[in-house]
């Protein structure tokens, strides 16, 4: 099929590339000319395992191209995907300005029947608004369909090529048949439902996963006080198929561009229809507090942090990505600086993105390696569970620090691994 993806962010770029990989003719469109030029040169703007190779392969065989010419690419396509951002407004609500603008652009470009698919995460009712915009501006027949995206950063290619399910929100049999055909090579789990349910499935799924994380983090906080080990508690809970073992890893809370944005948006969506989503409000509050456990543990171990040197391992909101949006590391480092600590920080790939948050470059010492960061520190805090940190020589690490205080915000190490060291070791929800 001929497909056009508008917006070359995470969702648009990865989806476009993956659909070209399964044999479709794909055009990725963006109004950012510089970004399109870079993509044409084979430069990938995001770090995502496997993506670069697929781009090279599919541009090479002519299945994939990049352009800023929206009109031509809409006219050539059977299906047009809207994949532009829906950032948070100060109220927490999703900003639909870009989605609505693209809907207008598509309507003005149309030259015959088109299926317009919304992949951007949009509040319930948005696809009906898009339908109204297109029908006002275009004389041509069309269908607007919601197909929410469930890919995770860091495993986006794999998630897109092998999704758990595809949700197709439409009441049009014609669109449903075409889109089922398109997605069949990816999975057998295809669910056709109403547009508004599809929109809600996306928010409900992210909100539920965020709830699991905040739930296990609160259990962890209680475990610390009653002498239980949250890792074993989560494992024991996970054997129950109704609960499941995933997303029960306690730590310093969720970050990223999706959970914080989508949980706040769903609270707003509920509020707009006079419903107070009390549970989700607590999930957000628990998450915002959880990161400060690192500071409490530092205070508990070192007392006043004034003049103490604190090493930070991990700045990205999770491993295998250079994305630092809503990363807990930001609040933690800002608090350390406020308390007068000297901060040394390192991330395998996200440092460049993270540094942009600091107008005064000298505030933090940005290090080139994990060991350089730890050298002469009074305490070391692990904030992102990169594989690299799991494999370090702990005895060597023990020897190079000023004080052997290790705060493991992601429960990466086991007691056994630390047996030969003199570390004062603190983790999340496990006995000291
Ligand atoms: C999330 C969802 O998992 C995707 O299904 C969804 O498509 C995406 O948002 C989106 O809406 O676009 P993502 O934000 O890439 O994906 O990352 P996750 O792997 O879900 O991790 C989110 C955060 O939760 C990370 O900060 C991670 O460290 C944290 N987390 C995750 C935990 O603290 N504990 C866990 O057990 C799992």
Automatic annotation (TrEMBL):
Gene3D superfamilies: Cytochrome c1, transmembrane anchor, C-terminal (1.20.5.100), NAD(P)-binding Rossmann-like Domain (3.40.50.720). Pathway: Nucleotide-sugar biosynthesis; UDP-alpha-D-glucuronate biosynthesis; UDP-alpha-D-glucuronate from UDP-alpha-D-glucose: step 1/1. It comes from the Bacteria. Pfam families: UDPG_MGDP_dh, UDPG_MGDP_dh_C, UDPG_MGDP_dh_N. The keyword NAD applies. Residues 311-415 form the UDP-glucose/GDP-mannose dehydrogenase C-terminal domain. Belongs to the UDP-glucose/GDP-mannose dehydrogenase family. This is UDP-glucose 6-dehydrogenase. It catalyses: UDP-alpha-D-glucose + 2 NAD(+) + H2O = UDP-alpha-D-glucuronate + 2 NADH + 3 H(+). The keyword NAD applies. Its EC number is 1.1.1.22. The gene is tuaD. Keywords: NAD, Oxidoreductase.
């Amino acid at each position: 099929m001929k497909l056009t993806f508008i917006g070359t962010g995470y969702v648009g770029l990865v989806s476009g590339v993956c659909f070209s990989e399964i044999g479709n003719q794909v055009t990725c469109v963006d109004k950012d000319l510089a970004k399109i030029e870079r993509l044409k040169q084979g430069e990938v703007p995001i770090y995502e395992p496997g993506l670069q190779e697929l781009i090279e392969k599919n541009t090479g065989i002519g299945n994939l191209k990049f352009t800023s010419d929206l009109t031509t690419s809409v006219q050539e396509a059977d299906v047009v995907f809207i994949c532009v951002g829906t950032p948070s407004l100060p109220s927490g609500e999703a900003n639909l300005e870009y989605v609505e603008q693209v809907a207008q652009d598509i309507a003005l470009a149309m030259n015959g029947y088109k299926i317009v698919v919304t992949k951007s995460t949009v509040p319930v009712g948005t696809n009906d608004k898009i339908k109204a915009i297109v029908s006002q501006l275009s004389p041509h027949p069309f269908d607007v369909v919601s197909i929410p995206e469930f890919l995770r950063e860091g495993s986006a290619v794999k998630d897109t090529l092998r999704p758990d399910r595809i949700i197709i929100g439409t009441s049009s049999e014609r669109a449903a048949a075409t889109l089922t055909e398109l997605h069949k090579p990816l999975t057998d789990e295809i669910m056709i439902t109403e547009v508004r349910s599809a929109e809600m499935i996306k928010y409900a799924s992210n909100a539920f996963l965020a709830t699991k994380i905040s739930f296990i983090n609160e259990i962890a906080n209680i475990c610390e006080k009653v002498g239980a080990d949250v890792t074993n508690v989560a494992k024991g809970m996970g054997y129950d198929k109704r609960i499941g073992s995933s997303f029960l890893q306690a730590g310093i809370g969720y970050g990223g561009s999706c959970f914080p944005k989508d949980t706040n948006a769903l609270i707003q969506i509920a509020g707009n229809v006079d419903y107070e989503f009390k549970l989700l409000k607590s999930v957000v509050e628990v998450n915002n507090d959880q990161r400060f456990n690192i500071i409490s543990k530092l205070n508990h171990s070192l007392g006043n942090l004034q003049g103490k040197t604190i090493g930070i391992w991990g700045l990205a909101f999770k491993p295998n990505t250079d994305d630092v949006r809503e990363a807990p590391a930001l609040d933690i480092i800002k608090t350390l600086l406020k308390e007068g600590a000297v901060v040394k920080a390192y991330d395998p790939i996200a440092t460049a993105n993270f540094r942009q948050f600091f107008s005064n470059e000298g505030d933090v010492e940005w290090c080139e390696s994990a060991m350089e960061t730890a050298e002469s520190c009074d305490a070391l805090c692990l904030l992102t569970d990169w594989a690299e940190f799991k494999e370090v020589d702990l005895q060597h690490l023990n020897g190079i620090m000023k004080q052997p205080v290790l705060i493991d915000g992601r429960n990466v190490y086991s007691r056994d691994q630390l047996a030969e060291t003199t570390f004062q070791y603190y983790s999340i929800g496990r006995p000291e």
